[in-house]
Structure formats: structure tokens, C-alpha cells
Amino acid sequence: MSQHSQSRDEGADDVVQSVNADGVDEVAVESNRRLYGGWQWWLFGTLAIVYSLFHLVSLNLYPLETWSFRILHIAGALILGYGFYAGTQFAETPQARSSAWLRWLSYAMLIPALYALVRVAMMYQTMNDGAMRIAPEIEAWHFGYPLLLATVAGIVLSWSYRQVRDGLSPADAVLMVCSLAVAGYLLVMFNSQLRASTGTPFAPMGISYAAIAGSLLILELTRRVAGLALVVISTIFLVYVFVGPHLPGFLGYPGLSVGRFFSQVYTDAGILGPTTAVSSTYIILFIIFAAFLQASKVGDYFVNFAFAAAGRARGGPAKVSIFASGLMGMINGTSAGNVVSTGSLTIPLMKKVGYPPRSAGAIEAAASTGGQIMPPIMGAGAFIMAEITGIPYTEIAIAALIPAILYFASVYFMVDFEAARKGMRGMRKDEIPRFSKLVKQVYLFAPIIILIAALFMGYSVIRAGTLATASAAVVSWVSPNKMGIRAILRALQLAGTMSIQIIAVCACAGLIVGVIALTGVGARFSSLLLGLAGVSQLLALVFAMCISILLGMGMPTTAAYAVAASVVAPGLIDIGIQPLVAHFFVFYFAVVSAITPPVALASYAAAGISGDNAMGTSMASFKIGLAAFIVPFMFFYSPAMLMEGSWLQILRVGVTATLGIVLLSATVQAWFFGPVKAWQRLVMLIGALCMIYGGIYTDIIGLMIGVGLYAMQRTRNGASTATPS
Predict the structure, then answer these.
(1) Which end of the chain is more exposed for a tag (fewer CB within 10 A), N or C?
(2) What are the C-alpha distances in Å from 146 to residues 160, 347, 487, 646, 713?
(3) What is the pLDDT, as a whole number, of residue 19?
(4) The overall pTM is greater than 0.85
């Protein structure tokens, strides 16, 4: 968490006058993030700006050949990533740096790394002179072995080499050179006729050397920016490639040699496949869009608007958290990042009006996770869904509307009923921003409105995103935070650094996707689901849910969905489920894995701010987001929830499912216009499930139960328990 956020957290109890969000748009500074000064700040800042501009120019003006563009996309993220993120803890003082021999050993590894890079330049010249391929001994002894030596040694040395926070470790300089060498070699070979030989015995072994080094570089950067979870899962899949032929049953497969596998995994069958395709186009573009919004302080406005709209309702800060996290989550690609940006303000305020630390953290975690399914932007996973399924992005955004309403309705009524049960107050009028003042700046919503309008007018996602980005700069000119040249360059720099994590995660997920595609394990999983569906389709769906959550634990949404979509979604389609329904089913559970114990990233981030136990917070957030674990099953039983059907069907299902969510929230919180007894909770649960199910007869039964309980509660408790505020 950033120092700014920490100070705001510590000083929250002193807030007595109007709460004005300030600093929501700031990016949290990770504990292993370098903070440069002087010429290094200028160098890496310029590299980040160039990286963002490279994508804007390539996507809009001068498109590159697809594989070349994706190779440069990953290489740039690796270079920036190793420049900004350290492999171990920082030394507190210059005297606490690692010993001189480690430093000189790290510098020594620059020799093989630079030698491999020079050899790439020589190979390029050789191929330009008309050579059909490079001699195998040159590829091995003069490129492959030096590159692998420098890569492995650089990674291992970076784990133990401690440098001050404002200095670059020489071990990381080695890894940056290795990243250049990998990209250079692949650009040379994939722009020749040898590209067609990948995955065959005729592929140059140099491609495999480059792919092995590239995979190691991606795994190490992923560890630095996203933790060990995705790295461990990727390693298990890689081990399976070579252990799989010896496994019994459906896990066994004929086997692949090292050369055959690695010559193909760094192509569009794996690392350069769908996940990188999306990160290099839609995701990077919307990260730039988000950076421009942050530079113009739109995030602060979103949160202040939420305070003005919902702050005075009972349990006000909790409801502010729901609205603010939904708005911020649309443009934020990670649930945990959303928690840090909005939760550092809302969690202390929730505690101030009476929420226990656990409830405060859980509400923020559940609301921030819901931001990933909030149309029209939906974090980043929706772009991958569009890429994998071929379904237009606009259709996916429309289909997500009712599920998003159900999710946020669930969280809202969970919060409202808890506030009513505990007698919590809202915030006073003098504690929140004045709505009349904020309405005068409503034009700050213009970039998002322009984005939505452009998408539904038929513009491509890239064109719509570019227009929205430009409009964010233009709109800022009539706001208090005008964007001049310096602010625009700052936004581009911010976008370059913000993109590192998501690009590393997508490349790492591509590694897993490559293993699944090349070994055929996905097809065998599909046959397993088919077998289960022969017994019970519900059993097959429950099994698919468990696998999706398990694969997504500890991973950002994008990677969680990409992996689950490769393993689980094809099996669901094979048992007769429509592609849109199957992918939304998987997507939902990949998203809610962020609040599913025992590994719940969003809940852990919220617990760090609230000061409560991480496991307790994850259990509480699981309870608050309970609807998200039920609604996906209804996609299968009632496709109208995804806008599949007539308008009358869609309207009926949407209304009754929302009422069912209200009953479900009342069941969990034991409050429905007053306290309820145990038998009433059981009846409410039956009524909730009947209405969420979506059938005409079950809807009628659920409505009768809801009306009966409402009349009973109003008669018993009188009009003193007003409708939810």
C-alpha cells in the first residue's frame, strides 16, 4: 500500500468534517517496487512512455505483423518489469547491500547475456545475406547455452542480491539483456521461412533455447508482480508435459520432446496466443484509458459522487463502497487493486459508523470483486472472452447486465439488512460532499459515456478506447485538473508501469494455455465432464465450478479466467451448453475466486487495511458475495439472465431473480423488515431459490412466499421498520 493510503487509513478516525476523496487515483507502491531518482528516473520513465506510445501507434496508425507485435509487447513488459520490480527485499542502507563478490558475479553474467545478444545481431545479418538457417552448433554454443546460463544465473542471483530501493540490481540488468536477446532471436526466426517449422523435428533448436529462457523470464516476473500462486500452477502444468506420458488413466498422453514442445509454446499456440493477443490490444489500451482518467482525477470524483449519492443512507460508507468500487472496478483490471484504491478510504469510514473490521473489509472485498463483472468495461476478462469465443464484445457487455445487477443487489441488501439489524447510522450531511457541487462536474463521466456510445455505434473496441482516451484529456481541460503535455506524458508513464503486472500474468497464463493445447489435457477433461453429465448435468456443473475456483485461487481475474476457459469451458460446451453461457459460467467463478477461501486475494488486501484476520475476512466476504455462487447455475437453467430470449422473458427473469436475491440476503442476515426466526429463514431460502431459478411456476411460488413473509413481518413489527434505505 502507498504511504499516502497508509496515512489516510491511520488518520480516518479524525475525520469530522466533509469527507472528500483525495488520492484514490494514486497507484499503490508495492514493497518490491523500485523508486528511482535522477537519471534512472528519467530513463525508466521515458521507457514507460515509449512503451505506451508504441502500442497506441501500432494499434491505430502503423500495425505490425501479429507475432512480431506480440513478441515486442512481452519483451517491453519484461524489460520494464525487471527495471521496476526487485526479486528480493531492499537493503535499508547502502552499507546493507549484498557483498562485493555477489555484485561482481552478477556483472560477470552480463558477458554471456551480451554475447547472446550480439550473436542475435550476427544471425540477423546472416539470414539477410540469404542463409536458409543457422548452423546448429552456433545456435547451441554461441546463443542457446550462454543465454540459458545468463538467464538462470540472473534469476538465482536476483533472489539473494539486495540493492537499495533507488538503484538497479546488476542481476536484473542481466535479465533485461536476456529479455532483449530472446525477443531479438524470435523476431529474426519468426520473420523467416523457419517460422513454419515450429512444433516439428525440423525446427531450429535455437527457438527452443529462446522459448525456455523466455518462459523462465516470464515466470520470474510473474512471481515478482503477482505472487507464487500462478507460478506454481504454471510449473505443475510444465512438469505435466514431461511426466504426463507416465501417468495412468485420462491424464496420460503420448508425450512431447523438449525441442518439440518449446519450439511451439512460444507461438500463437501458447504464449503468443489468445491471452497475449488481448493484453497487447484491448487490455493495454484500456490501461492507458484508465491512466488518463487517473491523471485527470476522475477516480476521486467517482468516489465523491458515491459519497454524495449514498453516504446518508444507513450504513452509508458501506453503500458508498459498493457504488465506488463498481465504478472504479470497471476500469481496474484486478480485484485486489480495486480494494486498495477505494478501500483505503471507505474501510476506515465503515469502522467509524459501527461496522466491525471484519465486516468492513469483507464488504469492500465483495464490492471490488463485483467491479470485474460490471459492464461496459468489466475489468479485462471480458476482452479475453470476446477473443476466445468470437462473440462481439458489445454482446458480452449486454449479457453481463442482469448478472451484474444481481451481484450488486446482493451486496447492497446484505449491507442494508446488516445495518438495520445493528442499528447503524448514515453519515451526517456535513460529513459528505455537497451533491449540488458535484453535479456541476458531471461532465467527468463523459469519457465513459463516449466509450459506451462508440461501442454501440459499431466502432471497434480499439477505436472506441482510443476515442475515450482522447476525450479524457479533452474533458480535463474544463475541470480543475487540466492535462497539459506534462500530465499526458505522466499518464503514458503511469500506463506503462500499470501494464506490467497484467501483461506478465497474461503471458504466464498463455504458457498454461499452451500446455493444455499441446498435450490435449483439455480434451480429456471435456470427456470427463461428458461422463459426469451422463449421470447428472448439475453434478457436472458443480465439478466445473470447483475446478474454475481452484484454478483461479491466488490469481488475478484475467489469468484465472484464461486458464479456466481453456480447461473447463470446452467441456461445458461439449455437454450441450451454449458457448456464451459456458464462458460466463467460468468467468463468474474465476472472478469470485478473489473472495473464496482459503486463497482470496481481494479479501486479503481488505484485511490488510481493516486490521482483521485474513481468513476471517475471506469467510465474511464469501458470505456477502453468496449470490455470485448461485447465479451462474441459473445461466444454464434460465438463459434469459444473459439476455437470451424475448424481452418479456428477460424482464420477468430479471425482476424475479432480483427479488430472490433480496430474500437470499435477508436469509443470510436474519433480517427482513425486522428480525426473523429460524423457520422463517428456511422458508425465505426456499422462496429465494425458487425466484432465482427462473421458471414461471417457481417464480409464482417464490413471490407468494415473499409476499406472505412481508405481510407477516409488517403485521408483527408495524411500520417502524421502514423499507431499505
Answers:
(1) C
(2) 21, 51, 42, 63, 76
(3) 57
(4) yes
Cα gap 116→139, rounded to integer Å: 10
Eight-class DSSP state of 377: T
Output the DSSP codes for 66-132. HHHHHHHHHHHHHHHHHHHB-SSPPBSSGGGSPPHHHHHHHHHTHHHHHHHHHHHHHHHHHHHTT-S
Nearest to 338 by CA among 557, 191, 135, 573: 557
Q: What percent of the chain has pLDDT over 90?
A: 39
Non-local CB neighbours of 266 within 8 Å, separated by 6+ positions: 186, 207, 210, 211, 214, 215, 272
- When the pLDDT of each residue in the chain is averaged and rounded to a whole number, the result is 86
The residues facing 164 across adjacent strands are 91
Three-state secondary-structure class, residue 725? coil
Per residue in 109-136, pLDDT tens? 999 999 999 999 999 999 999 898 999 9
Phi, psi of 314 (to 5 degrees): -60, 140
Contact 188, 134 (CB under 8 A): no
- CA–CA separation, 383 and 377 (whole Å): 9
Neighbours of 245 (CB within 10 A): 14
Segment 543-600, tens digit of pLDDT: 889 888 888 877 777 778 888 888 889 888 988 889 999 999 999 998 898 898 877 8
- DSSP-assigned states of every residue in 4-41: HHHHHHHTGGG--S-----STTSPP--TTB----HHHH
In the chain, the N- to C-terminal Cα span, in Å, equals 33
- Grid cell, residue 705, equals 412466499
3-class SS at 459?
coil
Cα–Cα nearest to 119, from 169, 172, 189, 171: 189
Least confident of 50-64, 176-190, 455-469: 455-469
Contacts of 483 (CB under 8 A, 6+ apart): 292, 295, 296, 472, 473, 476, 477, 491
pLDDT of 330 > 70? The answer is: no
3-state helix, strand, coil in the chain (%, to 5): 75, 0, 25
Instruction: Say how far apart CA 381 and CA 561 lie, in whole Å.
Output: 7
The dihedral region occupied by 288, where left means phi > 0, alpha psi between -120 and 50, and beta the remainder, is alpha
Runs of H (alpha helix) within 425-520: 435-439, 446-456, 461-476, 485-519
CA distance linking residue 267 with residue 70, whole number of Å: 10
In angstroms, the CA 115 to CA 146 distance is 7
What is the per-residue burial (b if ≥16 Cβ within 10 Å, else e) of 566-588?
bbbbbbbbbbebebbbbbbbbbb
pLDDT interval class at 27 (50, 70, 90) = low
